[in-house]
C-alpha cells in the first residue's frame, strides 16, 4: 500500500512570520507588565512614580490594541463580546464592500485606458499576426470551426441572407465600385486581351460559317438599291470585296500590338473611371445588377454556387494544409503588415478596443463586484478570518507593539505635565 504524503501548506511562511511577530508583541506587553510590577519594589520618589505611571499606560495601551486586533478575527479569550470576531461575522458585508471598492476604484475606465496605452495592444496583435509560427495555429483552429458554422447555417437561411444582402451590396455606388475593382484586376492581369481575342476569333468563325449567307444578303441589297442589272453585274463582286475587307481588318486586329486592341484598353480604362466617378453610371450599373439578381435563374445559380462553396469549404477546412488555412494565414499576415506599416491603423485599433471595453465596463464592474462578494461570502468563516489574518496580521502586531510603546511614552509625559501643574498625581 502506497504511503500518503502530507500536502504542503502554501501559507506556511506567512504563518511562521505571524507567529514570530505575535510572540514579539506579546513579549513586549509582558515585559511592560513586569516593569510595572517591578516599580512597586523600587524606592518611592518622583522618577519611580513617573516610571510606574508610564508602565501602567503602556500596559493599558498594549492590552487595548491586543483586544482591538484580536476582535477583528475572533472573540478575545473566547468570550462572545458584542462587536468582536468582526471578519467571520461580517464576511458577506466585507465581501460586498471589497467588491465595490475594487470595481469602483481599481477596475475603472481611466485605469483601463492607462493600461491599454501602456500595453499598446495593436502592436501586440501586429507581432502575433506577423509571426507565421504563432498565427498559423490560430488560423487552423478558426478553419476547424468553420464547418460547424457553415453547417449551422441552413440553406433556406443562407438563401434569404443572400437575397437580402446581395442587392444592397450591388446597389448604387457600392455595386459600381465592386464592378470597377473587378475590371481593374481584370485589366491588370491582361485577361481583357484574352476576352478580346476570344471575341475576334468567334467573330471570324461566325463570318466563315455564314459567308455564303452574307454574300447573298449583300448582293440582294445591291440589287434592291441599284436594280437587277447592277446587281447581276456587280453584286457578287462587291459582296466578295466587302467580306475580304472585313476579314483583312480582323487579321490586323489579331496581333497583340494592334491599334484596335490599344483603343479597346483605353476605352475600358475610361469606362472603369466613369464607374468610380459618375453617379449616373453607378446608378445604372446598380439597377442592372439588381434586375439581374431578381431573375429566378440567377437566384438558382447563386444557390448552386452556395452549395458548391459550402461543400468545398467543409472538405477543405478539415485539412491542415488546405486552402482555407493558407487563406486565413495570408489574411493574418496582411493584417500584420498593415498594422506594422500604418501607425494610424494601430491607433484606430487601440481606440476601437478602448471603445469596446468602455462600453462593456459598467457591466464588467457590476459582475466583478458580485464575483468578489460571492467568493468572500462563500468562504468558511474561520478560513476567511485565517486568510485575512495571515496577510495583514503581521502589520497588526506592529500596531500592538506601537500601542504598548506609545502608551508608555504618553503615560510618562502625562505624569510629568500633571505633576508640574497640580503638584501631585493620584496613584
Automatic annotation (TrEMBL):
PANTHER family, sorted: INNER MEMBRANE PROTEIN (PTHR38442:SF1), INNER MEMBRANE PROTEIN-RELATED (PTHR38442)
Does the UniProt entry include the keyword Ion transport? Answer: no
Coiled coil: which residue ranges? none
Give the keywords, sorted: Membrane, Transmembrane, Transmembrane helix
Please list every transmembrane segment annotated in the UniProt record, as residue ranges. Answer: 23-41, 404-426
* Domain of life the protein comes from: Bacteria
The protein here is known as DUF445 domain-containing protein
Amino acid at each position: 500500500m502506497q504511503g500518503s504524503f502530507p500536502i504542503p501548506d502554501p501559507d506556511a511562511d506567512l504563518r511562521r512570520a505571524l507567529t514570530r511577530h505575535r510572540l514579539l508583541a506579546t513579549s513586549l506587553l509582558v515585559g511592560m507588565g513586569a516593569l510595572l510590577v517591578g516599580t512597586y519594589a523600587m524606592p518611592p520618589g518622583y522618577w519611580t512614580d513617573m516610571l510606574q505611571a508610564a508602565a501602567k499606560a503602556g500596559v493599558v495601551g498594549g492590552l487595548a490594541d491586543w483586544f482591538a486586533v484580536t476582535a477583528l478575527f475572533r472573540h478575545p479569550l473566547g468570550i462572545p463580546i458584542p462587536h468582536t470576531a468582526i471578519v467571520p461575522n461580517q464576511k458577506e458585508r466585507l465581501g460586498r464592500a471589497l467588491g465595490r471598492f475594487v470595481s469602483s476604484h481599481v477596475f475603472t475606465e481611466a485605469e483601463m485606458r492607462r493600461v491599454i496605452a501602456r500595453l499598446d495592444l495593436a502592436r501586440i496583435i501586429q507581432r502575433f499576426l506577423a509571426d507565421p509560427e504563432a498565427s498559423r495555429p490560430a488560423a487552423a483552429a478558426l478553419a476547424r470551426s468553420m464547418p460547424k458554422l457553415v453547417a449551422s447555417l441552413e440553406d433556406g437561411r443562407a438563401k434569404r441572407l443572400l437575397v437580402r444582402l446581395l442587392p444592397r451590396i450591388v446597389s448604387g455606388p457600392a455595386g459600381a465600385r465592386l464592378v470597377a475593382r473587378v475590371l481593374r484586376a481584370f485589366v491588370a492581369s491582361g485577361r481583357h486581351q484574352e476576352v478580346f481575342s476570344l471575341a475576334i476569333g468567334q467573330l471570324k468563325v461566325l463570318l466563315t460559317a455564314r459567308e455564303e449567307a452574307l454574300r447573298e444578303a449583300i448582293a440582294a441589297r445591291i440589287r434592291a438599291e441599284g436594280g437587277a442589272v447592277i446587281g447581276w453585274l456587280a453584286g457578287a463582286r462587291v459582296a466578295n470585296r466587302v467580306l475580304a475587307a472585313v476579314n483583312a481588318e480582323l487579321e490586323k486586329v489579331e496581333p497583340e500590338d494592334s491599334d484596335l486592341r490599344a483603343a479597346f484598353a483605353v476605352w475600358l480604362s475610361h469606362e472603369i473611371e466613369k464607374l468610380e466617378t459618375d453617379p449616373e453610371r453607378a446608378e445604372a450599373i446598380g439597377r442592372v445588377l439588381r434586375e439581374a439578381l431578381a431573375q429566378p435563374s440567377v437566384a438558382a445559380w447563386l444557390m448552386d454556387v452556395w452549395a458548391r462553396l459550402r461543400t468545398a469549404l467543409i472538405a477543405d477546412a478539415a485539412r491542415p494544409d488546405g486552402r482555407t488555412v493558407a487563406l486565413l494565414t495570408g489574411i493574418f499576415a496582411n493584417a500584420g503588415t498593415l498594422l506594422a506599416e500604418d501607425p494610424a491603423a494601430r491607433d484606430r485599433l487601440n481606440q476601437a478596443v478602448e471603445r469596446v471595453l468602455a462600453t462593456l465596463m459598467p457591466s464588467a464592474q457590476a459582475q466583478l463586484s458580485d464575483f468578489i462578494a460571492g467568493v468572500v461570502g462563500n468562504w468558511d468563516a474561520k478560513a476567511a478570518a485565517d486568510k485575512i489574518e495571515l496577510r495583514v496580521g503581521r502589520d497588526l502586531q506592529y500596531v500592538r507593539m506601537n500601542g504598548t510603546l506609545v502608551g508608555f511614552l504618553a503615560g510618562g509625559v502625562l505624569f510629568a505635565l500633571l505633576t508640574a501643574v497640580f503638584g501631585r498625581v493620584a496613584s
